[in-house]
Amino acid sequence: MGEEESHSVSPMNRQANMHALSRIISAWPDIVGQDLVPSAHPGNLMADALLIHVEDVALSHQLAFMERQIIAGVHAAGAPWVKRLRFRVGNHRVEQRSS
Questions:
Q1: What are the structural domain ranges in the chain?
Q2: What is the residue-averaged pLDDT of the chain?
Q3: What CATH number is given for 9-89 in this structure?
């Protein structure tokens, strides 16, 4: 079972997570700064963590030093349950899905 599947999420919580993630994505330039937006992108909310896709390990270290600032911004964007950041190195662009 994958880390993202390790806890059961009710449809109501899933919808709240999607809504919160949408607000985090909208606020992302203000949270991390416009210069980091092309290289780091919020990927998913997992229990008490925000998964952030980054281009390289060095950027994950830089963002880890900004953890308090990022978590405060995530709380302000509507996800007050987030307590930590997780990073995934590699292609971070989320493809647009047709609705």
A1: 9-89
A2: 85
A3: 3.30.300
Helix (H) or strand (E) holding 43: strand 40-46
Token code pair at residue 70: 């990022």
Whole-angstrom distance, CA of residue 79 vs CA of residue 67: 15
Structure tokens at 48: 């008490």
How far from each other are the two terminal CA atoms of the chain, in whole angstroms? 28
DSSP code, position 99: -
Residue with tokens 């009710």: 10
Give the torsion sign (CA, 8, 54, 60, 17). Answer: negative
- How do residues 72-92 score in pLDDT, each as one tens digit? 999 999 999 999 999 999 865
Give the tokens for residue 57.
Answer: 């390990």
